[in-house]
Amino acid sequence: MTTFYLVRHGEPDWDINEKYKLKGHGRDLVPLTQLGVEQVYKASKDERLQNAQLILSSPYTRALQTAAILSKELYLEIQVEFDLREWQPDLTFQYDSLEQLKKLGTDFDLNNGNYPVGETRLWESKPMMKARMDGVINKYLNYDHVIIVGHGMAFRTQYEIDDIPHAYIIEYRK
Fold it and tell me: Which Gene3D superfamilies did the record assign (predicted)?
């Protein structure tokens, strides 16, 4: 059995999105705030992470920065896995405002992450997210302890929790 430590990234600097009017995946390029950096340094001291053999990371900046801090503190290699990316609120990659993101997120939540029967939505469904997360996790079942640095919505496909704080650690066994 493998123990995965799902570590949500530290607090990101979302203000950059509005300042630069970033669109689509450009909105995922924001770094951590200073508080976010401090959150990750604190998480790196958690006893559960000390036995990890590898760090897997989402390709998004906030996750990579989090993984880099953990890598430095825990002396572990980082493997970037594209399928650990966060929920895609707009599969056309056209959304460009916090208001649009909130509307798409609200629709996702109202439908519990599932498309209504006979309908499709712009957003990535929970089953789609779970399938890609499971695909990554299943590749690393030959390890005993693995850190996965990623995102709240994606982690919620593996573990039932309403809200995951920044730099929070969830133990997940498979």
Answer: Phosphoglycerate mutase-like
